[in-house]
Write a structure and sequence with these properties.
The chain is built from two helices and no strands.
């Protein structure tokens, strides 16, 4: 998981880095963070239901 505020710049940089080092990229999925994602990042644990 990778968090960024600038998706276009981040993906572009990752693609350039992979290409420069002879690597490839697999699937890239972009989505907005959910409240659960934010909670997990801040606390290190999931929200209890």
């Amino acid at each position: 998981t990778l968090y960024t505020r600038d998706v276009t710049r981040t993906i572009s940089g990752l693609m350039e880095l992979a290409e420069a080092n002879g690597g490839t990229t697999g699937d890239v999925i972009v989505r907005r963070a959910t409240l659960e994602d934010v909670f997990l990042k801040l606390t290190g644990r999931r929200i209890r239901e």
